[in-house]
Amino acid sequence: MEARGLVKRAGRATLLDGVSLTVAAGEMVAIIGPNGAGKSTLLRLLSGDLRASEGEVRLKQRDIGSYTPPELAARRAMLSQHINVTFPFTVEEVVLMGAGERSLREVGPLVDAALDEVGLSHFRERQLPTLSGGEQQRAHFARVLVQLACGEAEHGPGLLLLDEPTSSLDLRHQIDLVEAARRRAAAGTAVIAILHDLNLAIRFADRLVVLSGGRLAADGPRANVVTREIIRDIFEIDAVVHEADGVPYVLPQSMRAVPASR
Amino acid sequence: MSVAIGAGARGLRRHAGRRSASFAIPLLLAVLAATAIVALTVGAAGIPLSRLPNALGFAGNATPDSLTARDQLVLWSIRIPRIAATAMVGGLLAAAGAIMQGLFRNPLADPALVGVSSGGALAAASAIVFTDSRFGETLRFLQAELLPLAAFAGSLATTAILYGISSRSGRTSIAIFLLAGVAITAIANAGIGLLVFIADDRQLRDITFWMLGSMSGATWTKAAVLAPVLGTGLAACAFIARGLDLLVLGEADAFHGGVDVERLKRISIVMVSAMTGVAVSISGVIGFVGIVVPHLLRLVIGPAHRLLLPASVLLGAILMVGADTLARTIVAPAEMPIGILTAAVGAPVFLGILLRQRGLAAP
To answer: Where's the ABC transporter domain (chain A) (predicted)?
Structure first.
């Protein structure tokens, strides 16, 4: 996956301003940055859902706009942030949606495995709208895993895009999900995830990409990116960076050193 | 090996739940057949079940007596075409409702409620008045063909306007959609009012028929107009079913899942317009069939469109044939407009769905 000079404008606002990013098969990249930095816009450009105002996205040496929607779905899967299912589909039916036109008979084992992986096997007959937000998010993740598996069976390692996949999850399921993504990366999938939890991002990603104000502020291995200076510049907070077992972790301090008197 | 056995056991369990849906189609077909037989026997000229085989011409006696001859006339030139047309109108309206609900991701969308039927009725009423006028004398013989086309065009224009108003950058606002539907219905009704004002007595009768809905004008010709639309519609349903399922995730996520969303929306809009428009041109505006039928079916067989759409056609046909049979018997020898009956049943169901949604939305 290769993106060059991406610019996205909406009306007079420039959401992304010249972002370039190359992600190789088997790499796991976390995108971090404050709200409104352009993270979701970048992901939607990489997924082919939005078209860039300038620049291009290439997936497997082909312009992403040249794929038809089904061709694209077989090569990249994406989990969005807010999905609201209005009709009473069961968890199993939603997960099966990842398999496109294939029937449950053909992909039954894949659906079972994905439900197992997100810990929802016991809820497969439940109607999705009756589940909690976190459980719904896990069901959609299972759907995306099925889509990825179906595509990879035909076209080899694909691209997995995750937009704040852990936003509604408790700690255990956050780690479960990120570990599941890591397993995909270990098997050759290119994974790009927007993560808000810095420590989660640091722990699991090979590489961190920092966006700020629509521009690429930093891109590199965690040790280079996670520094007190960068965190202060980007997130406008004071944080202490410690290290445990060779992995840095970030402990946020107060907003400012100035006491909140006034 | 153990994996295969495990999967088999799971498969069995799946069939035990609400997914006993494979029985739905045969069951609905059987009920439709039974309803049709009842509808054949009752009416202004009653034909008891014992005379039915004879009257249908199945008994094969060479010289029918006068009673059988009368029965045959009633059945073949009045009742059978009417039942066939009614069933197809019901099927078209219910399927159009189900498709529209899938398209707008909302169980309250219905072509009659949001003005698609009114748009079709306005175009059809215009066709009546203008093909009837002095200027249109030469067009008059075309009326049978022109009405469905006009109604289709009116419905298509209304649906397109509605979608344009309520969808912005891939998101559909349901509140704006329903309110725009109210406004469009009002505009269409104003247009129909204007036509009522300039129409003569005979045209007036025709237009009133459009407003209330009735199957009393059904003929073989009209049934012949409905059949290809229903056939094409059913075939197209199989084609869009999977896409409509994924569309429930939202347009962006349906696209991520491999659906050509723009094409799906175009096909769905044309289908809803064609199915509603042609049904309206035969029956007039009949509301709520498109809401009640898919809603009931979702409760029983689930929301997957591959089954929901054909099942809607069948249940819509059953309800309409039943309602029409009631309409022509409860105030016999007069006939009640069927639109009144469907609204009397459908409006409370609509309110029920609304209240349930309110209940879900409450904190």
So the answer is: 1-238
The answer to whether A7 touches A53, Cβ cutoff 8 Å, is yes
> Per-residue pLDDT tens for B222-257?
888 899 999 999 999 989 999 999 999 988 899 999
Distance from CA of A149 to the nearest CA of B (A): 13
Strand partners, A218: A210
For β-strands A207-212 and A190-194, DSSP reports them as unpaired
Residue whose entry in the numeric block shows the structure tokens 């929301």: B303
pLDDT value at residue B141: 59
Residue in B248, B257, B260 closest to A87 by CB: B248
- Range list of β-strands (E), A119-212: 159-163, 190-194, 207-212
Residues forming beta bridges with residue A56, ordered by sequence position: A4
What is d(CA A234, CA A146) in angstroms, rounded to the nearest whole number?
A: 36
ipTM of the complex: 0.89
Of B3, B248, B250, the CB nearest to A89: B248
- Interval B259-283: pLDDT, tens: 998 889 888 888 988 898 888 888 8
Helix (H, G, I), strand (E, B) or coil at B30: helix
User: Is B202:B187 a contact under the CB 8 Å cutoff?
Assistant: no
Chain A stretch 39-98, residues whose beta carbon is closer than 8 A to a beta carbon of chain B: 44, 47-49, 68-70, 72-74, 77-78, 80, 83-90, 92-93, 97-98
Q: How far apart are CA B233 and CA A5, in angstroms?
A: 46
Task: Give all domains of chain B, ordered by start, each with its CATH number.
Answer: 79-354 (1.10.3470.10)
Phi and psi torsions of B284, nearest 5°: 80, -175
> Closest chain A residue to B246 measured between Cα atoms?
A97
DSSP B48: -
Fold annotation for A1-67+160-167+197-261: Rossmann fold (3.40.50)
Comparing A176-190, B18-32, B49-63, B109-123, which segment has the lowest mean pLDDT? B49-63
B contact test, residue of A76, A87, A122 with most B CBs within 10 A = A87
Chain A residue whose CA is closest to B243: A100
Chain A touched by B302 (CB under 8 Å): yes
Distance in Å, alpha carbon of B313 to nearest chain A alpha carbon: 19
Instruction: Output DSSP code: residue B17.
Output: S
| Chain B residues closer than 8 Å to A101 by CB | 242
Q: What is the pLDDT of residues A18-63, one digit of tens each?
A: 888 999 999 999 999 888 888 989 999 999 888 888 888 989 888 9
The secondary structure element, H or E, covering residue B171 is: strand B171-172
Between residues A225 and B209, the one the model is more confident about: A225
CA–CA dist B268, A42 (Å, integer): 31
CA A130/CA A89 separation, integer angstroms: 10
Cβ neighbours around B19 below 10 Å, total: 18
What residues contact A37, with CB distance under 8 A and at least 6 apart? A211, A212, A213, A214
CA-nearest residue of chain A to B174?
A: A86
For chain B, the farthest-separated pair of C-alpha atoms sits apart, in whole angstroms, at: 80
- Kindly give, in sequence order, each residue whose CB lies less than 8 Å from that of residue B77, ignoring residues fewer than 6 positions away: none
